[in-house]
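re: ur question from yesterday

yeah so i grabbed the chain u mentioned. its 484 aa long if i counted rite. heres the sequnce exactly as i have it in my notes:
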Amino acid sequence: MSSFRSRIRLSALLVIGALLVAFSVLLYSGLSVILHRYLDARLLAFGVNWAEFIEETNEALPGSAHQPSLSEPRGTDSEENRELREVARSLLILSPDGAVVWKGAAAQTRPSLPGDLWMKALRGEIVYDTIKVANAPPVRRISVPVLRNGTVRYILQAETSMRFVQHTLRQLLALLVVIAVLTLALAWVGSRWLADEALVPVETLSATAEQISGSSLKTRVSLNAPYAEFQRLAHAFNAMLERLQHIFEAQRRFIADAAHELKTPLTVIMGSLEVTLKKARSAEEYREVLIGNLGQVERLIALTRSLLTMARFAGDRPPLQFTPLAIEPLVKDLIGELAVLAESRHIVLEVDARPVPRVLGDEGWIRHLLINLLDNALRYTPRGGTVTVCIETAGEGVGLAVKDTGPGIASEHLPHLFERFYRVESARDRESGGVGLGLAIVKEIAEAHGGMVRVESEVGKGSVFTVTLPAARLDPQPGQSALQ
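ran it thru and got these structure tokens back, copy pasting raw so excuse formatting
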């Protein structure tokens, strides 16, 4: 498996190499164009100079009396004239039909001008062509028409070797190769530093992650890197550790609380059995012990069911069968089921319903949620009290509020009411049959439906538990969710 560090170095080299190639190609091509233009400009100056010289002298070619004058141009013995004389040695003057009229001392036999270029020259245009020479650099040739009375009388051809152009371009190519090799060598060394510098935060994260275990989740990453991307990565990593720490601590508390809750009724059962078995007792005494133990067994069964429910929500939430539900008939059905229990405790159980849209939810779990809320309200409402279920629209959802006229809850307990096994008064809760998981289950079910639950309470004035659930669309479009 290739390392990320090697990939960074290789990528850096590839990028730098590509830039070097692009730069070299542009520089080489640009200089080649400049040198060729310079060469053509020199040839043009030579050719035009000689063409004007012939036109101005009005010399009749061929003619032995005039031939020497072509090899000695006008003017002083300047550098320019020396260059002109050097080129003049390779001059070739042709007639319009291609016959040689005059040739310099160093003029060589070259391939004829291609037909299309020859026609352009006959029309009075200056043309260039490049001639390949065996075992020698190419030759650049210019063909300049010489006019007499507006008519092309001669075609003057001058040429010069491209040795200088080739030599210069070869030197440039060698220099570019050396620069490329040195640059890539430096880039290879620099890319190692770059890769090491870039991966320092990643190494820090890796080292921190290796130190983390279920018992050391308090470790946090501290990065000194000035880059915002790595700072965001560190913050995200630390936030993940915070969530994991919270989950593990909640799991530890849950296991400890569950063990404690299971231990209490088992201890009571074991103690009563041990005391009963110490001596012979009457049938009535055995009956009382069994009845007491039966109550503890019922408590264990209720606790086990609640634990199983919480376990289903602890990992991936159980699959919910979402369907549009009419909430009012469901609430009234539950009120009817609990009416006998409420009457036995002399509690008034009523419904205050207003027109609301259907709720999108799983009917079984919604029933479970409502039963837990109503059971909690009936358990803590005194004789002669009232429990009211209010149904109303809450924004884009439906609100279910369970109000009771119980003793109320002190404000310091409100933030913890939906925690597992949290009790305001432990002894009193156990006597009432509660296991400390009902409201935690309500919270899990509400959140699984995309809703929420909150509580409002004041000591001596009762409590209100409100669940808000998303409403269902009446006519969802194909492919759309039924959620509002």
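noticed a couple things. The longest helix spans residues 4-57. also The chain has three domains: 4-167, 228-312, 320-470.
anyway ttyl
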